[in-house]
Amino acid sequence: MRLLNASGCLDALAAPQVARQLDAFVTKTVTPLPREGSDPPRIAEAAHWLLNGIGLANPGRERFLREQLPRLAELLESPLWVSVGGFSAADYAETCGRLEGGTVEAIELNLSCPNVDEAADSAAEIVAACRQVTSLPLYAKLSAAHPDVASVARAVADAGADGLSLVNTLRGLALDRRLRPVLARGSGGLSGPALKPVALHAVRACAEATELPIVGMGGIETGRDALEFLACGARDVALGTVLFTDPGAPARIRDELAAACAEVGLAAPDEARGLAKRPETRKNVTV
Questions:
Q1: Sequential DSSP letters for 144-162
Q2: Among 3.40.50.300, 3.90.1700.10, 3.20.20.70, 3.40.50.150, what is the CATH number of 3-37+56-171+193-284?
Q3: What is the mean predicted confidence (pLDDT) over 261-280?
Q4: pTM for the full model?
Q5: Which of 84, 146, 242, 267 gets the most CB atoms within 10 Å of its CB?
């Protein structure tokens, strides 16, 4: 099992000491053109959830390739994953093609951001277009909002995806005391512990439907949380909202994961993989 960050939840250039605790670092989503993102306020939070309406703010592809990617490669010893976004299959493919032959280990295709208008093309079309221009591993980041996320997983697998990132945030709304939306854009992406049961369902459903490796994420705050994602079929896990409040979370969760394994009689985290899957689907488990 490897420990990553969820895209957008950690700025490695500002907090390299936190990023170095991870087994791989995932960048914030990069789009072809610069984006200033949504107007403030962009964040709403409560005890068990966080709502963000950042709107994919980023410097754009050219500046990212020219400035940020080289700095990240120099600063971090861990492998780099680049999160790629866009508004058409061509947008995604052009960026993926530009990453070929560099310092990038894998590409995560952000196919489900709730804070912007989604690409008109289907997830499978986007994956297929990117597959034609790069040999780098492609991880499709999907939303659990789809009524049948397993069917989307099968479609992107058929289109050439090498793995899945599950899940992206769900669209949500928070109101202030005057009963008006807290976020300037109205709705935003829900993350934090409240997302965990939904994420576990999506991971198990997609692990049963495909043999693709899965990075599980959504509300992981403890080693026990990480172990549950492995039990549902994830191969790796990613930390998101917890990194905002606990910069030491990666090291702490690794320690807790070892203790959580011992509590259930497992010698290592990978022994949990797929234990929560239905018996008839466990043949897909790969360690």
A1: TTSTTHHHHHHHHHHHT--
A2: 3.20.20.70
A3: 94
A4: 0.94
A5: 84
